[in-house]
């Protein structure tokens, strides 16, 4: 069989092996996907191991998404712009780093909640690593504007200026000042929570009061533990369309699978097996 892997620290709770092995089974591809617990100091040895064992594909998770980059032979331009790699493709010993998190999120969003992003007004809550990947991918969809709202406003400003170069004509990317916030939120077509607010075990927390939103707003949360956060529950109660974080996990894996195999990922089988493992 052809070997695939995911690395992280911690890694024991990863759902990637269950999801990817199901994808290999479904498509009849003779692949085996395993999880390795790799500490920081062992990262260079692991990369030597990819070459030595001819591992075809690797997913990279926390805390290695940045540190892996200088150890690879090439970095895809989008991964370079995002500053993080979550997928490695090994072509006969040449290791290329990609980032499928942001595009995975966008594919999930379009598939499950909002088919058309062009011309839309988008609000991002949070300005960390997760926000960065998603904003980069959303900019490719030519939204009218992306407004960044963060507890620490200076971090939103930094994120906005560092991705300005990827903002196409007709789109605006900007940090939201505290005075603008209420108006910007009320006008949003889409609000995305990228912060950890509401994640298990703090399930009663919400990143924003949904009474500030208009009923036409689509509300999205990257969190998938719980599958439906309190933020999404309160939005649904007010009649808004909602989108949870599980799809981002499924589709980041779907893109990785497609990069490695060239075969369309069996998305619904992948989702079923992950859902079954969560309950
Ligand atoms: P990730 O890679 O998951 O994005 P990160 O880079 O540490 O993690 O970013 C976390 C983001 O969540 C930040 O925008 C952070 O806000 P600050 O920049 O002000 O720290 C936001 N965040 C985390 N906990 C939060 C909380 N309790 N309330 C509001 N924002 C929070």
What does this structure look like?
- With 279 residues, the protein is of the alpha/beta class.
- The protein folds into two domains: 2-99 and 247-278, Leucine Dehydrogenase, chain A, domain 1 (Rossmann fold, 3-Layer(aba) Sandwich), CATH 3.40.50; 103-243, NAD(P)-binding Rossmann-like Domain (Rossmann fold, 3-Layer(aba) Sandwich).
- The chain has ten helices and twelve strands.
- The strands form two sheets. Strands 2-1-3-5-6-4 form a six-stranded mixed β-sheet, sandwiched between helices. A six-stranded parallel β-sheet has the order 9-8-7-10-11-12, with helices on both faces.
- It is globular, with a radius of gyration of 19 Å.
- 2'-monophosphoadenosine-5'-diphosphate binds at residues 126-131, 150-152, 155, 194-197.
Question: Would you kindly provide a brief summary of this structure?
Answer:
With 279 residues, this protein is an alpha/beta fold. The protein has helices at 16-27, 43-53, 77-82, 101-112, 129-139, 153-163, 181-187, 230-237, 246-261, 267-278, and strands at 2-8, 31-37, 57-60, 74-75, 87-91, 94-98, 121-125, 145-149, 172-175, 190-193, 218-221, 241-243. It has a six-stranded mixed sheet, sandwiched between helices. Strands 9-8-7-10-11-12 form a six-stranded parallel sheet, sandwiched between helices.
Task: Set out the fold topology.
Layout: E1 2-8, H1 16-27, E2 31-37, H2 43-53, E3 57-60, E4 74-75, H3 77-82, E5 87-91, E6 94-98, H4 101-112, E7 121-125, H5 129-139, E8 145-149, H6 153-163, E9 172-175, H7 181-187, E10 190-193, E11 218-221, H8 230-237, E12 241-243, H9 246-261, H10 267-278
Parallel strand pairs: 1-2, 1-3, 4-6, 7-8, 7-10, 8-9, 10-11, 11-12
Antiparallel strand pairs: 3-5, 5-6
């Amino acid at each position: 069989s052809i070997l695939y892997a995911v690395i992280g620290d911690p890694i024991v709770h990863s759902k990637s092996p269950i999801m990817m092995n199901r994808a290999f089974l479904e498509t009849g591809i003779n692949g085996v996907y395993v999880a390795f617990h790799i500490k920081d100091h062992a990262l260079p040895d692991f990369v030597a191991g990819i070459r030595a064992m001819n591992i075809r594909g690797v997913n990279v998770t926390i805390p290695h998404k940045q540190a892996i980059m200088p150890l690879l032979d090439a970095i895809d331009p989008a991964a370079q712009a995002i500053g993080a790699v979550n997928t490695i493709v090994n072509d006969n010993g040449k290791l290329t780093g990609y980032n499928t998190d942001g595009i995975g999120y966008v594919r999930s969003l379009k598939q499950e909640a909002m088919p058309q992003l062009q011309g839309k007004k988008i609000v991002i809550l949070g300005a960390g690593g997760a926000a960065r990947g998603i904003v980069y991918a959303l900019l490719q969809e030519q939204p009218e504007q992306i407004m960044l709202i963060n507890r620490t406003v200076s971090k939103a400003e930094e994120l906005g200026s560092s991705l300005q170069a990827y903002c196409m004509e007709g789109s605006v990317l900007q940090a939201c000042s505290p005075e603008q916030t209420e108006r910007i939120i009320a006008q949003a077509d889409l609000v995305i929570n990228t912060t950890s607010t509401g994640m298990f075990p703090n399930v009663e927390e919400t990143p924003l009061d949904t009474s500030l939103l208009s009923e036409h707003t689509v509300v999205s949360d990257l969190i998938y533990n719980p599958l439906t956060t309190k933020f999404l529950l309160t939005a649904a109660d007010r009649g808004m369309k909602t989108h949870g974080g599980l799809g981002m996990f499924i589709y980041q894996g779907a893109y990785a699978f497609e990069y490695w195999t060239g075969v369309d990922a069996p998305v619904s089988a992948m989702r079923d097996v992950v859902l079954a493992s969560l309950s």
